[in-house]
Write a sequence for this structure.
């Protein structure tokens, strides 16, 4: 029995049926499931794909964060295990009856009533439109590669490699694997246990890669070919594929598998025992003896199966390595064949860590190519030049005629940031990132291991390096290469188009364009909190985010706001920053008619802001110490611009201010952890006490001994005399009263319900984009006010978003369309109730009824959002410690809304996440976000620690008895 496919159980802003439904649930002792609430959002607009729903007996109660309205805790989540519901005969009809009876009298209702036949069961009348999810009890995943006809869901490697070191069991030649404090050999059977295909191992008997290491530079292309032939045994792999068992990603016509996630977080192993051609269902027999018939297209599965077996079972599929999922078995096997016992040498494949990225496969380059000059150069032996697989222009760097031998084509990585490739695989580095460029890097790494060939683009990187030595102009060199392919993703990339369209560029300049990931933080101070007296502003054109005061604005009225570079009268093309090679960001004019980043100006000791209220123009560039220009940035490695260095306490006395700048200038010093002194008795340099300015002119920045590029602001609170808390930790305290978190509510004001179409100017690109449900930048003009964006978002979110089974937890929200960083994704809505009401609902209704937490959180002392029974699907968005969204209050027409914004570009079918910043001193909620930077708990540890520090045990308090 099932609901009509397109039936919506709960609609946003439709109170009456909600209440009825709730009552009904209460009578029936059934939970109100968030999943049911969102069925409309999922598939109403899902391009012809049948609308999905869950039969009630397969619905589980959900866990969710809820609110404690009392005390200091903003949000208290109760993690209660999912519970299968008991199906009560006839309840589905009753619920549908209730729903139909009370469905709102709006156009949606009319549409749906027209669409839905009222007789039942719909499953019979239109079986195509029904998808039923099967949910199974969790079972322990047992896996053996050897098991014939085994059907595995997911990667065994992922499950197994977390295990402690396994005892030796037979060897694969000289393979050494290092575990903490221990190097040891890895046996065949162990590799098999770790998911390495035995057929792969049998092919690894040839010479070790080290012995036949290929010289990867240009001059040795011939040897590449030769070696390739020598390794033909590996290349015969494809012929063996048909017989050998491999990981396959199955494809099913007409279904996008990303929508269908496993309901449970465990993978079940079993085998396919049959196929029903009539029903298109496969019979699956699980290892525990259970059997069920499945429409495989609604499952996310991987098969460990041979091509022949696939054919006999009528399965179609493709080799995952050729698609987006690397063949980990082979990769592991190939990597295991590398002799790990020797020193690192050029040509070695390794894992390297670049700040802000997952451990990434890379190859060690010849150090002589990338020797560099500058005060901060890494001392010999402590760092190695590497080139990354999959993202070749990480390291495309400019030629600077002022600095000898600076033709960098690689990134230097500290040795401690490098891990052996085999060990990295054993530590599951290959499973830690799912981005396409990471998968591509694995694929290239595999190619390098098996065929000893670097991708063409990496080779051409080296060609560039050679070219750069012989040409005078860096621009020429860069244009010569073929790396400007915009399809090659990167963190830092040289922006050729920038150079080409910019007529006058400083000598030796090459821009570095950064994909600003942190749209949710101020581009000047880099803090992600908002203050009452320093609100966030987002440029309605370029979407850059700044604090009002950090950027030097007067006030914010919620209307259209453009940053300096997007306003009328700004330079036609983004000007280069005079102080660094990074393009874009929060820039201001300099007193000498150029432009520079505010952040650069603030951090470089010699520069200052002429008017600190307006935060412009930037002055003092001519005073920058000449040695500072020679420094090479240890983050981007570009020897262009002026760098700051970590400060040494002893140097402080040398720093001073010109007397006449006393009132105006801002000075910041950066200290490494070692030298930072949090005490207040440190002399405050900002104040300017008139010490000899000549000394500053002679100041030579010290050598950066530690090589640490991470700086912490010194005496942050004295900046601009601001009132708000200074250090991040102090700011966190602020959050306690103003949760940044999950929030959201909608007052259901009729004014916000008016169709956005009505309010838009007919005929604009914008309105047509809305009608088409497009959020594409191509389709939209680039400037909208918040109000316009808000209306567009409301009009289109159903077309853009879907909910589905999440890999993180229960259900989650997925992007049906790609989103751009800064896009308004969805509004978090629900019922706004007072804390006592929320408390009562939670304790008297939801807890006993649902057996799980509720979808509530506190906005402040007066308001709590209850999204359990009303609201959009935003409440299903899961938490991640490395999220792709963030939440933010905005005001539209005087009304507050909580909006989920895209923090970065979001690909199609990506799950939306944001950082809950869950605050609870008492409760720890384990996090399963799986991100590289997962802190292990959903809790906002920092805020909790700060709050805990402020509390003193009762025993330590002394009662005051007057006088
Ligand atoms: C608002 S619900 C999110 C939707 C939820 N997945 C569901 O199906 O109902 C929040 C709850 O999801 C779970 N959750 C969300 N993100 C999580 C994460 N990263 N790790 C563990 N649990 C998470 C927690 O139990 C939390 O209380």
């Amino acid at each position: 029995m099932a609901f009509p496919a397109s039936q919506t159980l709960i609609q946003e802003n439709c109170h009456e049926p909600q209440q009825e439904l709730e009552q009904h649930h209460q009578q029936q002792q059934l939970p109100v499931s968030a999943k049911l609430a969102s069925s409309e959002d999922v598939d109403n607009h899902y391009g012809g794909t049948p609308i999905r729903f869950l039969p009630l007996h397969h619905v589980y109660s959900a866990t969710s964060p809820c609110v404690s309205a009392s005390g200091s805790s903003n949000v208290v989540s109760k993690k209660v295990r999912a519970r299968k519901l008991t199906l009560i005969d006839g309840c589905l009809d009753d619920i549908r009856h209730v729903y139909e009876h009370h469905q709102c009298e709006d156009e949606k209702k009319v549409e749906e009533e027209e669409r839905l036949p009222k007789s039942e069961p719909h499953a019979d009348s239109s079986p195509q439109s029904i998808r039923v999810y099967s949910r199974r009890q969790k079972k322990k995943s047992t896996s053996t590669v050897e098991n014939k006809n085994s059907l595995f869901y997911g990667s065994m490697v992922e499950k197994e490699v977390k295990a402690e070191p396994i005892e030796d069991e037979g060897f694969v030649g000289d393979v050494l694997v290092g575990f903490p404090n221990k190097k040891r050999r890895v046996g065949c059977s162990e590799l098999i246990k770790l998911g390495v295909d035995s057929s792969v191992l049998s092919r690894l008997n040839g010479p070790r890669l080290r012995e036949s290491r290929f010289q990867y530079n240009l001059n040795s292309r011939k040897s590449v070919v030769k070696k390739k032939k020598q390794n033909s045994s590996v290349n015969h792999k494809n012929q063996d594929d048909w017989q050998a068992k491999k990981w396959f990603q199955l494809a099913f016509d007409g279904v996008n598998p990303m929508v269908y996630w496993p309901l449970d977080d465990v993978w079940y192993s079993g085998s396919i025992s049959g196929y029903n051609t009539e029903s298109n269902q496969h019979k699956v027999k699980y290892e525990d003896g259970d059997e069920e018939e499945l429409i495989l297209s609604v499952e996310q599965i991987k098969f460990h199966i041979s091509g022949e077996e696939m054919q006999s079972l009528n399965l179609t599929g493709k080799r995952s390595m050729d698609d987006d999922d690397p063949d980990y078995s082979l990769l592991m096997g190939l990597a295991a064949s590398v002799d790990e016992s020797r020193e690192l040498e050029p040509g070695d494949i390794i894992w390297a860590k670049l700040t802000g990225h997952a451990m990434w496969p890379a190859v060690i380059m010849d150090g002589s190519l990338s020797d560099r000059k500058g005060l901060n150069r890494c001392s010999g032996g402590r760092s190695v030049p590497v080139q990354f697989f999959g993202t070749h222009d990480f390291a495309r760097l400019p030629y600077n005629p002022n600095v000898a031998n600076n033709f960098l084509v690689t990134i230097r990585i500290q040795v401690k940031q490098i891990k052996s490739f085999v060990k990295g695989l054993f530590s599951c580095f290959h499973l830690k990132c799912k981005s396409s460029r990471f998968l591509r890097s694995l694929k290239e790494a595999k190619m390098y291991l098996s065929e000893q060939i670097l991708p063409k683009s990496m080779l051409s990187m080296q060609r560039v390096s050679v070219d750069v030595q012989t040409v005078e102009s860096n621009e020429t060199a860069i244009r010569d290469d073929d790396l400007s392919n915009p399809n090659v993703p990167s963190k830092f990339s040289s922006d050729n188009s920038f150079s080409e369209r910019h007529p006058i560029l400083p000598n030796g300049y090459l821009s570095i364009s950064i994909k600003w990931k942190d749209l949710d933080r101020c581009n000047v101070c880099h803090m992600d909190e908002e203050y009452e007296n320093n609100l966030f502003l987002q440029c309605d054109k370029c979407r850059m985010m700044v604090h009002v005061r950090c950027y030097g604005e007067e006030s914010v009225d919620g209307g259209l706001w453009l940053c300096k570079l997007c306003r009328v009268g700004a330079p036609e093309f983004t000007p280069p920053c005079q102080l660094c090679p990074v393009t874009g960001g929060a820039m201001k004019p300099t007193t000498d008619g150029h432009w520079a980043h505010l952040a650069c100006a603030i951090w470089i000791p010699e520069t200052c802001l002429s008017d600190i209220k307006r935060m412009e123009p930037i002055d003092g560039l001519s005073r920058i110490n000449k040695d500072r220009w020679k420094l090479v940035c240890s983050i981007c490695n570009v020897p262009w611009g002026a760098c700051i260095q970590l400060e040494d306490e002893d140097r402080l006395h040398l720093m001073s201010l010109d007397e006449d700048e006393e009132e105006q200038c801002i000075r910041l010093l950066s200290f490494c952890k070692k030298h930072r002194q949090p005490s207040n008795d440190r002399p405050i340099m900002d104040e300017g006490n008139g010490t000899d300015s000549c000394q500053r002119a002679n100041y030579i920045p010290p050598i950066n001994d530690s090589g640490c590029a991470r700086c912490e602001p010194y005496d942050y609170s004295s900046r601009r005399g601001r009132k708000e808390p200074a250090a991040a930790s102090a700011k966190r305290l602020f959050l306690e009263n103003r949760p940044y978190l999950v929030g959201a509510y909608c007052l259901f004001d009729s004014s916000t319900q008016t169709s956005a179409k009505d309010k838009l100017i007919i005929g604009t690109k914008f309105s047509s984009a809305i009608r088409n449900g497009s959020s594409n930048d191509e389709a939209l003009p680039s400037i909208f006010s918040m109000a316009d964006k808000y209306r567009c978002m409301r009009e289109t979110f159903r077309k853009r978003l879907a909910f589905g089974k999440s890999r993180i937890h229960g259900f989650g929200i997925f992007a049906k369309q790609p989103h751009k960083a800064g896009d308004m994704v969805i509004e978090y809505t629900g019922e706004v109730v007072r804390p006592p009401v929320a408390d009562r609902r939670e304790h008297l209704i939801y807890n006993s009824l649902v057996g799980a937490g509720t979808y509530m959180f506190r906005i402040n002392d007066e308001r709590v959002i209850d999204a359990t029974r009303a609201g959009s699907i935003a409440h299903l968005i899961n938490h991640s410690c490395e999220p792709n969204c963030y939440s933010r209050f905005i005001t539209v027409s005087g009304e507050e809304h909580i909006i989920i914004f895209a923090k970065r570009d979001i690909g199609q079918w990506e799950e939306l996440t944001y950082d809950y910043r869950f605050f609870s001193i008492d409760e720890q909620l384990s996090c399963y976000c799986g991100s590289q930077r997962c802190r292990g708990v959903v809790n906002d540890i920092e805020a909790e620690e700060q709050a805990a520090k402020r509390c003193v045990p009762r025993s330590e308090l002394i009662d005051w008895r007057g006088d």
User: Anything to note?
Assistant: Residues 150-213+234-322 form one domain. DSSP finds 30 helices and 36 strands in the chain. Residues 34, 62-65, 77, 79, 806, 808-812, 853, 855, 875-876, 878-880, 927-929, 938 surround S-adenosylmethionine (CB under 6 Å).
